[in-house]
Amino acid sequence: MITVENLHKHFSGFHAVDGASLKIETGSITGLIGPNGAGKTTLFNVVAGVLPPTSGRVVMDGEDITGLPPHELFAKGLLRTFQIAHEFSSMSCRENLMMVPAGQSGEKLWNTWFGRKRIAEEERALRAKADEVLEFLTIEHLADHPAGMISGGQKKLLELGRTMMVDAKIVFLDEVGAGVNRTLLNTIGDAILRLNQDRGYTFCMIEHDMDFIGRLCDPVIVMAEGRVLAEGSIGEIKANNEVIEAYLGTGLKNKDKLEAGA
Predict the structure, then answer these.
(1) Which of 254, 212, 253, 252 is CA-nearest to residue 234?
(2) Quick check: bond before 35 cis, omega within 30?
(3) Residue 101: domain span
(4) pTM for this structure?
(5) What are the distances in angstroms from CA 234 to CA 8, 238, 240?
(6) What are 211-244's pLDDT values in tens digits?
(7) Locate the ABC transporter domain: which residues (predicted)?
(8) How far apart are CA 2 and CA 58, in angstroms?
(9) CB-based contacts of 76: which residues, under 8 Å, 6+ apart?
(10) In terms of domains, do 187 and 62 share one?
């Protein structure tokens, strides 16, 4: 689905992404791991159109999407979430979801005068879909709660729910488990698996929790110093001496630490 070819992103001489090439296959849950500063989030930002590349290409389903802005990629079904959730804090969880689809009739002043029936019908359909999404994510009890008042883990679920309000083809998840307790992390993991298996979502996720990666992801791609260092199953990655050295920086003596989920 996504092919990244020799991608570079430089910031005043600093090579945050330095010739990275990788593929994300349709229907996969691909993990992207590596030490801090490896270039993972920068790569996400370039693929998702937040940052323009210095050079290289990004191809989606055979189409060159390099440098397209986020709203155009959104329309093509490429979405991303952020490590820090971006909710409308004073609006309810349901209203946050209803805001997502683009091109709603109520966005045009003319329709507010002469298209009220159409607006009302759209809102009923959006409300029903939002309630379905909240139920799928097991947070229907939060439907009327202000989004700014729910927990960090629940906000991550709400972010995932936003991707369900449109026809997402591939979703880039940036540290969906960061700051989330184990119970909610399991709930998030269950939702990702169901979206992948039952609804055909393709995911690529940055994550530091190796247990979480091991449960969900195949393949796992390792980045270091802006480049792809290795790719394989979680077992192959844990057994790769080069990965252990780059990820932990202290050599093989910490191999057991990596295998334990450090």
Answers:
(1) 212
(2) no
(3) 88-147
(4) 0.85
(5) 26, 6, 10
(6) 999 999 999 999 999 999 999 999 999 889 888 8
(7) 2-250
(8) 7
(9) 60, 63, 65, 68, 169
(10) yes
